């Protein structure tokens, strides 16, 4: 098999370390590198300090065949990437006439005057191969040094993505002979990572050496990512399909989709295919479940509306919950959640109604009903099912988990209709 090419991604900028901006570049770059058969082995963030950048470059040289750097290419004094690269490679800075012509044209087309700082954008390390950035003045740069390839990119995401897609990814493909890396994602819900691992342990142990499994847990679910490496694209697809076929009987009940499928999208398709309408009654989730449903384009075809019945008075007036039910059992009870799910279906005239009611926290718990006590329900013309959730102390987590568990309950009920 072709040797694996390793890559390290380095983001430069104090603003990333201070949490003032979110680093989305490394995630995107990692995905694109994998698609061309280059395996990211590490990502690092470093501030605008010369010594720190030099240190991380030296370390990356020991680990990777390709070192990709984003950020620090602007015209101001705090942008030190080019000067630091000169120090690292032991070269001087020279003005690149092709880069200068592009920067000049860039400003002329916009009717803007150039400053000396703008002209300095065309000053590059002497060993740099200039790569034109069509969408900005910060240059792209390609270096070859001691058997390694170094790529320097602007940190602005849309400029970086354009350069990588149109310039650097094709250049990397030409430069390296890379193996094929293929991913297959199995999307599960309603089962914890450890329980899932126990259930598929024998299958996992029997995977061939060139197929690896990773567990990617999230709120209420786990993604199983199979990664196959080889030289034959069609064969890898076949092998991944065979492994999915082998594991499915063990986890089929918890699998809602594959690859980029999202739970709310799968539910939307089920509702459309079965020509069913949905109404939602929310108390403790405060509209979060409805927002998940309406993330899907075209949700109006099946989602008719929701009632956020945060108070008991609204539960009675809008959903038809009986006052005596609230008096006897309370808002957080099986009896109440059943009437909420059935009530929203009646109030909105939908085929299906789902509901939430509970104590999301951090306050409001009692010895009998501590924070994290939440009831969910799903009602159809066939039956109403309910479930008690016993979650944790954290409000945001409880709301997200409740939404996932409720949507999965809805999915399971739709499969039975």
TrEMBL record:
Residues annotated as signal peptide: none
Q: Which residues form the MoaB/Mog domain?
A: 8-175
Q: Pfam families under this entry?
A: CinA, CinA_KH, MoCF_biosynth
The UniProt entry's sequence similarity note says: Belongs to the CinA family.
PANTHER family (UniProt xref): NICOTINAMIDE-NUCLEOTIDE AMIDOHYDROLASE PNCC, NMN AMIDOHYDROLASE-LIKE PROTEIN YFAY
The protein depicted here goes by the name: CinA-like protein
